[in-house]
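For the sake of transparency, this paper describes our internal protein records without simplification. The tokens are whole numbers drawn from a learned vocabulary of local backbone shapes. One such record is reproduced below, unchanged from the form in which we store it.

. . .
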Amino acid sequence: MPTSLRERQKEQTRLEMVRSAYDLFVRDGYDEVSMDAISEAAGVSRATLFNYFPRKELILPEIARLRVERLKEFARQRTDERPATVEEVLAFILQIAREHERIAKGHRRLMMQVWFQQATHGYLLERRAEAVEALGSMIERMPRRKKLFPARVAAEMVFAVVMATALEWMMNEKHPVNWLSLAMEQRLSVAFAGVA
């Protein structure tokens, strides 16, 4: 059954608020962004924003969905234009890691709390499945030297490295902020060497 115009407009408004919040979090850090700044950037009233997101931290789970959508769009572009290279996929994942670093600025625990909240409600598994599917479609089309693993297995291995590295970074406040992108680059380089 197709969604109504009203439902599509509500979803578009929600998406615009999440995108605006995400852009502000990346630019200024989570702490520095007020709900007023988000509503202004999204072009909605404060009341509308609070109707969708009564608290700022409720926006964070939506950011995971937005990131997966970005990955799926990246995969679609590479499928339509030409196959993605390992370097392009690695650069894309590292871009997301650097965005995590800019958003976090002392909020790794909050990110971890949101992550586990998503896990207990099943959202994390849904996002994981979508991300693995997108990665698998790109790996399948890569000009690969070795085909030791099916593309889906290779995508699951790469995604497991991403998730484990992010979790370690969130749990260890002693790691410098840029540890995430540095560790991600090293670990994914090894992972991709084994699957691509």
Remarks:
- The radius of gyration is 18 Å.
- The chain has two domains: 1-54, 57-195.
- The chain has a mean pLDDT of 83.
- The chain has nine helices and no strands.
